């Protein structure tokens, strides 16, 4: 899942659990009409469990036929929140969060990258929450019960109120409220991508030492991140027209996305559930080709030239939403 959280980043900062429970959602079992919970209260319980519960397990993420898994641990104790996410596929790396400080350990490079959470849009986080303001753009609908990782779960659908966002199916642990699985659905109800625990332990003593083990390996080079938080209003860009529901949630100066070297501006927007990132960098005829669009799972990408700049828009939203962002972007 992540937060969480923008950029390729977005995919990770976006619902930041990672995983699918093997094939598909187990058929929901509903014995008669499901009681309708108060949407605000239901989300509050979900969010409280994500931040306040101790849990550990394995999560699997699937999109466009690609499956990856991570081992995760989350501890909340003594006023601190600790997280550890260890990739089990591809380049081995571990991501640690201690409150607002994030450290990414790359064993094959003997490198540790340190940054503050506000700038770590690529963080794959175990924390998954839905802001209450999302209810202005999604309706919360009961959809029965199921089982995830051996635990009984309540199934809820977040149905979009317009065509600018995708529906999401949330499966939360009945006993604790912890989100166990999330599916992003297209307009026909087909799953675009899914993330879930394949096995999970909830509760138990807070073992802070175990979560932080390996965070500061001896002999590794420690570097600060190349991402820096900046003020969007001072960067000379604006949105001529807001995209309904999406508010600016952050702005970074970071390495260029499409061009070799150089810097890019990344503006991040969210409706409380979904995320969109706009990457803005100087146009280069050598580095940038014609306009293009791509999709992987629920993540769409639109790239095109706007004046003397190259714009890359990415997010877990329909392509039309990204096109509205690009069309509304202008220099002051």
Structure description:
This protein has 332 residues and is mainly beta. It has 4 helices and 21 strands. The protein has helices at 8-13, 39-52, 208-212, 319-328; strands spanning 55-63, 66-77, 80-87, 94-98, 101-106, 111-116, 138-148, 151-160, 167-173, 179-185, 191-202, 221-224, 228-229, 237-239, 247-255, 263-270, 275-282, 292-296, 299-306, 309-315, 329-331. The protein has a 12-stranded mixed β-sheet. The protein has a 7-stranded antiparallel β-sheet with strand order 13-15-16-17-20-19-18. A two-stranded antiparallel ribbon has the order 14-21. Strand 15 (247-255) and strand 16 (263-270) form a beta hairpin. It is globular and about 55 Å long. Belongs to the RseB family. It comes from Rubrivivax albus. InterPro entries: MucB/RseB_C (IPR033436), MucB/RseB_C_sf (IPR038484), MucB/RseB_N (IPR033434), MucB_RseB (IPR005588).
């Amino acid at each position: 899942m992540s937060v969480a959280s923008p950029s390729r980043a977005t995919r990770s900062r976006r619902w930041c659990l990672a995983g699918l429970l093997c094939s598909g959602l187990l058929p929901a079992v509903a014995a008669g009409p499901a009681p309708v919970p108060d949407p605000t209260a239901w989300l509050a319980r979900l969010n409280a469990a994500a931040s306040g519960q101790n849990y550990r397990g394995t999560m699997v993420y699937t999109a466009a036929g690609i499956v990856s898994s991570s081992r995760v641990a989350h501890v909340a104790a003594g006023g601190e929140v600790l997280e550890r996410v260890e990739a089990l596929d591809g380049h081995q790396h571990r991501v640690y969060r201690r409150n607002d400080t994030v450290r990414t350990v790359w064993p094959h490079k003997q490198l540790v990258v340190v940054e503050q959470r506000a700038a770590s849009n690529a963080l794959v986080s175990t924390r998954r929450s839905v802001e209450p303001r999302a209810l202005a753009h999604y309706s919360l609908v009961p959809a029965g019960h199921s089982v995830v990782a051996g635990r009984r779960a309540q199934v809820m659908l977040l149905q979009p109120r317009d065509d600018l966002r995708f529906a999401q199916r949330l499966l939360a642990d009945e006993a604790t409220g912890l989100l166990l699985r999330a599916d992003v659905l297209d307009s026909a109800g087909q799953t675009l991508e899914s993330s879930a625990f394949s096995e999970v332990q909830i509760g138990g003593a807070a073992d802070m030492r175990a979560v932080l083990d390996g965070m500061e390996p001896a002999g590794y080079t420690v570097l600060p991140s190349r991402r820096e938080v900046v003020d969007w209003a001072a960067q000379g860009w604006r949105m001529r027209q807001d995209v309904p529901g999406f508010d600016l949630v952050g702005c970074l100066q970071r390495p260029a996305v499409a061009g070799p070297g150089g810097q890019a501006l990344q503006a991040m927007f969210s409706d409380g559930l979904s995320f969109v990132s706009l990457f803005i960098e100087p146009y280069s005829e050598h580095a940038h080709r014609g306009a293009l669009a791509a999709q992987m799972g629920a993540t769409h990408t639109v790239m095109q030239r706007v004046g003397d700049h190259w714009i890359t828009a990415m997010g877990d939203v329909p392509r039309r939403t990204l096109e509205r962002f690009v069309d509304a972007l202008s220099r002051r």
